[in-house]
Design brief:
Length: 577
């Protein structure tokens, strides 16, 4: 472990460095010859030490450890200072970074998880029977318009990408198979855009700049065993007032992203299922939506955080079942109805010990238009069928939004009168409303819950000897429910007048134990035969039945059964995505 930590930092950062040293000493004492660490001096010094600290800072930069800005108090003034507060863990040629250690909270977990991840990575890379294909699709024609869009460095894009991939390949046992595909044909560019979501750029002639009409694309496609992921190398970013600006990928960011995608594809960490059907939120950016100026609903921040410790497996219930061996299945805000057979799959996954996280919204916001005029949106209740499963397991999501006087307050612009505006549908959950007894809730000191529905326990359906229900979040005693005439226009929302209209609402629960199947004593639902109405046939006609005299297939019988009682598992319910 190589640690890069600036000297003489003010509190509390000096305590963080001391804690880190003590922690690493304990690791070394336990591990003997298999563990060593070094602290590198990166603080500017006078005299002969100056050159050494410069070399150490260059070393930190090579490992992807950059200084971060911290706030300090000097002579009753708030000042900002750049400081190195990171480390890199090295195992053979593999590395794992913790670039910013700003607190001791969870640091031992971070270190141990990173070390374990490196061990898992070594084993996984040794087991691979095929390489990860990395393809650079790039049009050199883009160089001509680089200065026009503020990217004078575009000619350096190809060598930068090549160097980044080669550097990463050397650190990952050569598992990357890198190739470059020049895109000089517009038809090919359109084909790649449809196949991989590559950004297709076109521009008119600009005679005064000696630029001819043209086209081009720039993207990196990573493929492994039938799965592909696209990383755009040029992105258009819309900034208010300024307009559209263009950004080119940076080496360190690109290296981190390729590494993250590769780790997910080859399956280094434990697997977490993520529902990818029924109108659920996506963990992958929607390149087409971004190109067309539509809202990209991908939960990218969540995806980036979870991918550091877990492999995300997309589960499409409309096409396939739930894989065996998942620790957890996340069902993120579905909006479409589940068939009984799909509910059966979810129920039986729970029975086999797969924990399930239900992240649900109760309403879908629908924009309204009338003769070109925008009307207030309508809020239509979402009914997916999951509700009856949850009620059977012991928890019910009520239809409505929890409003709270203890809420987020936004600043009103001066031109609109200034002051604060209460956002009642964004309750602020303070420490006393957060249950920190479960270990995973320990470090959560406050939350803002947006458009959240209330929960209630169905106690008749919970066997207290087998299932424990733990409330995790609740609103304040100054809360009320909006369950009709729903609006999210803050000036139109007013607290009720009577004191008896207020109460605290439960907002998140964890159920754990051995559950009873919703399908206990019921017939197994039939899987819908998607060939009954074949959309590929003209007019969606029914697929003809075999002739009466045709011989049936060899008699094969497979008898399924309902697993009626679960292995120990957990159900997490949060009624807000």
């Amino acid at each position: 472990i190589k640690v890069f930590f600036s000297k003489d930092l003010p509190a509390p950062h000096n305590n963080t460095e001391r804690y880190l040293k003590d922690l690493l000493e304990e690791y070394a004492a336990r591990s003997g010859q298999y563990f060593n660490y070094t602290f590198y001096n990166v603080t500017p010094e006078e005299g002969s030490l100056m050159q050494k600290t410069d070399e150490n800072r260059d070393l930190a930069r090579d490992y992807g450890i950059d200084p971060i800005q911290i706030q300090i108090m000097e002579n009753d003034e708030v000042k900002f200072k750049n400081a190195y507060m990171g480390l890199v863990i090295i195992h053979g040629d593999l590395i794992e970074r913790i670039p910013a250690i700003t607190s001791v909270d969870g640091l031992e977990y971070q270190l141990t998880a990173a070390i374990q991840k490196l061990n898992n990575k070594v084993s996984t890379l040794h087991r691979l029977d095929s390489k990860v294909k990395v393809s650079l699709f790039l049009s050199d024609s883009l160089n001509a318009i680089g200065p026009l869009i503020g990217l004078d460095q575009l000619p350096q894009l190809r060598p930068m990408v090549t160097q980044t991939v080669e550097k990463l390949n050397a650190r990952n046992m050569g598992v990357l198979d890198f190739s470059q595909v020049p895109v000089t044909d517009e038809a090919l560019m359109q084909q790649l855009s449809e196949q991989y979501g590559l950004v297709a750029m076109t521009w008119p002639a600009v005679p005064e700049k000696q630029i001819a009409k043209g086209f081009g694309t720039a993207g990196l496609v990573i493929e492994f065993k039938g799965e592909s992921h696209t990383i755009p190398l040029i992105q258009a970013v819309k900034i208010p007032i300024i307009g559209t600006t263009y950004q080119m990928a940076e080496p360190q960011t690109l290296e981190n992203e390729i590494n993250s995608v590769m780790e997910r594809m080859i399956g280094i960490n434990k697997a977490i299922g993520f529902l990818a059907s029924h109108g659920s939120l996506s963990v992958s950016p929607d390149q087409l939506a971004m190109m067309q100026g539509r809202r990209d609903e991908a939960v990218k921040a969540f995806s980036g955080l979870i991918s550091r410790r877990y492999t995300i497996k997309h589960v499409d219930l409309a096409q396939e079942g739930i894989p065996e061996g998942l620790n957890c299945l996340i069902i993120p805000r579905p909006t479409q109805k589940f068939t009984d057979y799909e509910l059966f799959q979810i129920d039986q996954a729970l029975m086999k010990g797969t924990s399930i996280a239900f992240i649900s919204d109760m309403f879908q916001q629908v924009a309204m238009q009338q003769r070109g005029m925008g009307l207030p949106p309508r809020f239509l209740p979402i009914d997916t069928g999951l509700e009856k499963l949850l009620k059977h397991y012991g928890i019910q999501i009520e239809k409505g939004y929890v409003l709270d006087q203890e809420c987020y307050k936004s600043q009103t612009p001066p031109e609109m009168g200034g002051g604060q505006q209460d956002i009642y549908f964004a309750p602020v959950l303070k420490n006393d409303r957060i249950n920190t007894r479960p270990a995973f809730m320990n470090n959560i000191k406050g939350l803002v819950a947006i458009q959240i529905a209330p929960l209630s326990l169905v106690t008749d359906n919970i066997d207290p000897d087998r299932v424990t229900a733990t409330r995790l979040l609740r609103s304040s005693e100054k809360s009320w429910l909006m369950d009709s005439n729903i609006t999210l226009n803050p000036p139109m929302i007013h607290p009720p007048s009577g004191a008896d209209a207020f109460k605290s609402f439960d907002l998140a629960y964890l159920l754990e134990g051995e559950f009873t199947s919703y399908f206990k004593g019921k017939a197994i639902p039939e899987k819908e035969d998607k060939k009954k109405a074949d959309p590929a046939a003209p007019g969606g006609q029914a697929v003809p039945k075999p002739a009466a005299d045709s011989k049936p297939a060899a008699p094969v019988a497979a008898q399924s059964r309902v697993i009626e009682t679960s292995k120990p598992a957990r159900i997490f319910v949060l009624p807000s995505s």
